[in-house]
Specification:
heterotrimer; A mainly alpha (86); B mainly alpha (273); C mainly alpha (135); B: 273 residues; two-stranded antiparallel ribbon; 11 helices; globular; C: 135 residues; mainly alpha; 0% strand
Amino acid sequence: MESDILIIGIMGFLGLISVIATYLAVTEKNLVRAVLYSAIQSTIYAFLYFLLMAPDIVLVYVPVAVGLYPAIILFLIRKTEHEERD
Amino acid sequence: MISRVIGAIVITLFIAVFSLVIALGGLGYILPPENVRELARQYLLIAYNPFNKTFTVFSPEAVTSIVWDFRGLDTLFETVVFYLAIIGSVALARGIKPSKPEKDISQYGLSPIVKTVTRITVGMILAIAASIALHGHLTPGGGFQGGATAAVVPLLVLVIFSKYYLETRGVSKNAMLSIRSLGLIGIGLTAFIVLIVGLMSGTNAYVFQNQPKPDAPVGLPALFDGQVISGTLWFFNLFEMFAVAAGFTIVFLLLSIPERDVFKYLKEEGEEY
Amino acid sequence: MIDPITYFYTVLLLSMAVNLGISLYGIFYKPSLIKKIISLTIFSDTANTFAIIIGYIRWRAATQPPQPPVLTNLNPAEKDLSAFASTAVDPLPQALVLTAIVIGLAVTLFLVFLTLQAYRLYKTTDVREIAKLRG
């Protein structure tokens, strides 16, 4: 298989997996697990930015969306509630 | 019940119309397109062009030259928006007095193995953050990327050691606020320095100017002792790294105030529960 | 028959659109304030990804991928510059997305502090309970 079809095929596959991760993050009742699924989705997006030849955005996105956002929201969850009601 | 049905219809319609716009050729008829747009081609040609000294920025990294030189005012106002968010958060925590630690400081935190490993990796993270920020005009990187990487260090120390350890080391909210303000003053000075030099020597100059232009023949040097520093870009990256790292540290310090201090303050204010 | 490159690219674009729809559902219909903040971050990240996908160009040949917008030669000739301008990816969306990420971060930080203060005063983060309080 040629390289261009392979790389753009991997991009399409990553898009499909990110849909599954987003659905799991939005419909999960336990908030700590929802933050974890959101961090998985951000990692998939960071890999997608690397394949799209945007190295500046990868260097912003990895500390901010995989490191700082989940840390801030985990601080918030610890001070407020852990579960979402119905 | 009826609102859920309307909501489901709206979201499905949103996805369907979006797909219709793409399929009808909204992004072009050949996907992905063959060439970049004409504006992007011009920016790529003049980002580092030793033959065209009128328009060039002398920075081989096209994204940093757009962020700090061609569209520099956008970045200035983005920094102002971030500063407003931090001021709002500091104002919400006004008046809360921190309490003293009850036990000895070395008994807070996780086990000694974790503390030793953290002491080793903190130095490495700071070195990588400085390298990303200061090489921002030559390789992918820049001020905000370096600052966000350097902001991981106070978070690690806060979780693994304790908040009281940070305060005995001098990292308090007021110290970080003054570092952030110094960083922002540095950014403002770098934006105005070519204008000041032009006014003092009697020639025409603009705010946010980097290299000499045809009717404003003043500017910062693009090469320093044979190394490429691209004029004002290096100074912008340096000050932005300090400002962003200090800003994130303030947020983490505010988020780690224990709840009993807050309740004591709210009871004094007279809020009822 | 069908061009596989256009097919996979369209799959990527449509999965971004579906992500936008799911995160909009999360913002409207989930009652917890923290879940709304998580869905808002997913929404803004997906919009930024869409902007960067637009900047990609097609491969020239099967062994010549597009380059990131960084020039690697510090003493270029004229033909190096025009070769760079015809094989590099669009740098403008990347610069605009950099600004957009920072502004989204500032808004999310402020929302987190507001949620914390609302929990301290009303003892709940459920919007239905807060709407019942009314003053």
